Structure formats: structure tokens, C-alpha cells
Amino acid sequence: MNVLLDHLAEFREGFIGTVLLTLASGLLAMVLGVIIAGFRVSPVPPLRFFGTAWVTLFRNTPLTLLFLVAWFVVPVIFMPGLSPWAKALMALGFYTSAFVCEAVRSGISTVPLGQAEAARSIGMTFFQTLRLIILPQATRTVLPPLSSIFIALTKNSAIAGAFSVTELFGVQKLLSDQGFAIAWIFLWVALGYLVITFTISGLFRLLERRMGVAR
Amino acid sequence: MTDVSVTKDAIPAADELVVLNQVNKHFGALHVLQDIDLTISRGEVVVVIGPSGSGKSTLCRTINRLETVDTGAITIDGKPLPQEGKELARLRADVGMVFQSFNLFAHKTVLENVMLGQIKVRKADKTAAEAKARTLLDRVGVGTQADKYPAQLSGGQQQRVAIARALAMDPKIMLFDEPTSALDPEMINEVLEVMQQLARDGMTMIVVTHEMGFARSAANRVVFMADGRIVEEATPDQFFSNPRSDRAKDFLSKILHH
Q1: Residue in B159, B165, B140, B174 with CA at minimum distance from that of residue B46
Q2: CB contact under 8 A, B97 and A121
Q3: In angstroms, rounded to a whole number, what is the distance separating the alpha carbons of residues B252 and B222?
Q4: Which of A2, A187, B17, B56 could form a disulfide bond with B48, CB atoms 3.0-4.6 angstroms apart?
């Protein structure tokens, strides 16, 4: 019990670290995922190919391996001097974007084809059709899987702790190395994650209720 | 009636708005459009009829390239249909389309449905778009429903909104792909009346339909299709009273007897 009160500062810092990392990489994954989903349904073959390649690569690579690549390969080849936080953001964001893309794509396919045909027949371009007609109607279907994806992202962000990014799970290692009782530490860390994941699922349930499209 | 169609038929042949030249299309092994030649003049109302599976809906959809063709050429107002892209989008804005299943944007109100194309495609400003949308909605008789969502309207009302949405783009031609086939019988007339009015106002129209009454009263020309071919083209009077082909005689004997 005392381990929490005595190290409130560390726990707080770890908690905020996890929240920030989840928020930032969630945002990145969301933006990338929607763009890549657009690529995957586009009429332009090279874009479709790029989208498929992206999803295949990031969905099928273990996240830890992506972290290793971000830590040891990316700085050498592309961007030297990237901070650990930015590297974790990239690994988590890219990995999650593949899952977001597939969720969005499944949502797109639930919108009746006639909606896109009507949009195209009044002269909208492909991207206008996607942005103004298809995606808004796909959102409602995409919310439940997205909620799961972001909860998974929250927990996946724990891997960043092993790569010396300050976040909740890293606090556990810090304190257990100092010899505190491990069970209590785990309990508080787990509760910290629970607060975040419950917030996410609550938020999404609220969104779902607001976004019904009547047919 | 006869007099009217004679005067309406006297449209200069030079003013060709839509020309299909030797158009062929396959769906897999099925040859849905076979050597289709069809010319529609400005101001003309052409009704396409025929048994289901005869390719009439496909024909209608090739004209704004919702379906691509395998061989042959389609020109609209002298311009051949371009490949998918900005230019095709611009051309589609000039070709109004009304679908069997209405296809109103489900997440937009009736008013927004009619404004959207004007604002996003024609780049009209919002006030002008709204004024025009309201005028059109009044014209098709659903002005009071402007702030509702499509799902709250009856089928007939939805289809009239769909017509207003297409008209908002100031199209050169209107395509109707079985506009009344998904409607309850009592709602068919309210849609047909709007279409009759459009025809009287001089809109160029291609109408795929099973409504023989509409074909008789509003068409300048009836095109009869069967098995992917245009079997017969005639004025409504000629076609309904004295069809030339056996296929058309057979078709009419089946539908006109009750």
C-alpha cells in the first residue's frame, strides 16, 4: 500500500507518460489508418498496392520487433538523433495504423454501394465521395472495433517501458528493482491501465450512442 | 396525342446530346449490351422498356459511366466519356441520375442532400444553394420536409427529393433508372407527375421504366430492348398500337392484358 503513497510522483509520471504516448500514437494511427484505408479502396492501382503492402507489413510484424527496428535500424538509415519517445510513437503508431485501416475498410464496405454511386453521379470526385459521404456513414460501424484497437494500443504502449520511455509499466521495473513488494506494484500499475482503458471504452460507448445513422 | 408527338418529334437531328455508337458490354460470359446504337437529341424524352435482364438498366448506367463499356463509343454533347477522374466527375455533374433505390445520403437532411452537390461540386455559395434547394424541393412538392432525414420520408417523397438533388446540378440530361420500381403503387403517381412536368419543361430524359402509361403520355420515342439488343424504336403510338417485332408483340401481350 505504502509503495503507492511513497512513490506517487513516479506513478503519476508513469501514468501521464502512458496517457500521452497512447494519445499521440492513437492520433497518428487514426490519421494514417484512415488515409491508408482510402488508398486501399481507391481506383488507382499503385495506391491500392501501397495500402496493402503497408497493412501486410505492420500487421504481421511483432510489435517488439518494430520497436527494435525503430531503435536500431531507423536511426542508422533514415533519421539519426530521434528521441526514444518519438521512436516509440512511430513504432506504436505505424503498428496500430494497420489495424485501424482494416477496421475503417470494413466500415466502408458496410455503406451501401448506392451511396457512392449517387455521390459520383452528382459529380463528386473519389476523395470527396469518401470524405463527405462514405466515411461519415462508416464511422458508426467502425467505433466498436476502434475501441478495442485503442485499448490494445494502451496495453501495447507498455513495451515502450522496456525501451526506457517513461510510462506506467516502466514504473514497475523501477520500483521492483528497488526491492518493493512486487504484488502491490503490479496492482497499482494494473489499476492505472484500467483507468485508461475504461475511459476509452466509456468514451466510445458515448460516441456510438451519438452517431446513429437512420436508414 | 398524335399531334403532340409529331411536333415534339420535329427536333433538328443535328442537335445530338447523347450518342451511343456500337456499344458492347459483357458481365463475364453474359453479353449484356450488343452493338447498341442510340442517339438522343436535346429536349427529347426517350423511354426504354423491355423484360428484366434485357440490359436496359445497364444501358442507362453506361451513359454516365457508372458502368464501363468494353467496346464502342459514347459521347455527351459532342465530348466522348473520359476515363475515371476529375474530367469524368465534371461531366457527371451535367448528367442527372435517379436510381431505383433513391440513394439519398442517409446522414444528411433532405435540404443538405440537395445543397451538397451545388456547394462541393459547383462551388456555389451557401445562401444561393439553400435558396435553390428550397425552390426545387417546393417544385417537387416536398418543401415542408426539408429538415427531415431521408429515412423519415416515404419512398415517393424520397424519390422526389432525389429528382430535386439531380436537378440542383442544372443537368443537360436526366437519366432515370427504374425510378418507380421500388415504390408502393399509391406513390408511383406522385413521382411520375414530377417527371411529366420535367418532360413538359423540355428536359432531355432517358427513362428506364415499366410504367407503360408514362411511356405513352410523356415519351417522344420508345426504345424496346431484349437480350442486350435494341429490338425496336418507335413513337409510343406506333409501338403500343402496332409493334413491328414479334418480341415486342409478345412482351406487350403479357403486360397489357390486365
Answers
A1: B174
A2: yes
A3: 13
A4: B56
Q: How do the pLDDT tens digits run along chain A, 215 residues long? A: 577 777 888 888 889 989 999 999 999 999 999 999 999 999 899 999 999 999 999 999 999 999 999 988 888 887 777 888 899 999 999 999 999 999 999 999 999 999 999 999 999 999 999 999 999 999 989 999 999 999 999 999 988 888 878 788 888 888 888 878 888 888 888 999 999 999 999 999 999 888 765 55
Structural domains in chain A (count): 1
Is the Cβ pair A114, B149 closer than 8 Å? no
Predicted confidence at residue A215, as pLDDT, reads 54
How far is it, in rounded angstroms, from Cα B59 to Cα B23? Answer: 9
Range of the domain at A28: 16-168
* CA B94-B223-B14 angle, 5° bins: 55
The pLDDT of residue B85: 82
Complex ipTM: 0.88
Model confidence, pTM: 0.85
How far is A108 from chain B, CA to nearest CA, in Å? 14
Residue A114 is nearest to which of B99, B149, B169, comparing CB atoms?
A: B99
Of A43, A123, A136, the CB nearest to B92: A123
CB contact under 8 A, A117 and B166: no
pLDDT tens digit string along A12-22?
888 998 999 99
Has residue A197 been placed in a domain? no
Q: What is the CATH number of the domain that holds A112?
A: 1.10.3720.10
Digit-coded pLDDT (tens) for B80-134:
998 888 889 999 999 999 999 999 999 999 999 999 999 999 999 999 999 999 9
Q: Does residue A68 lie within any of the structural domains?
A: yes
How far is it, in rounded angstroms, from Cα B135 to Cα B114? Answer: 10
| Amino acid residing at A187 | L
**Which chain B residue has its CA at the smallest distance from A122's CA?**
B93
* Rg of chain B taking only CA atoms, in angstroms: 18
pLDDT tens digits along B2-60: 444 444 444 445 589 999 999 999 999 999 999 999 999 999 999 999 998 899 999 99
Cβ contact B18:B39 at 8 Å: yes
Which of B86, B103, B120 shows the shortest C-beta gap to A132? B120
User: Is A67 part of any domain?
Assistant: yes
Q: For residue B223, give the H/E element and its range.
A: strand B221-226
User: Does a structural domain hold residue A164?
Assistant: yes
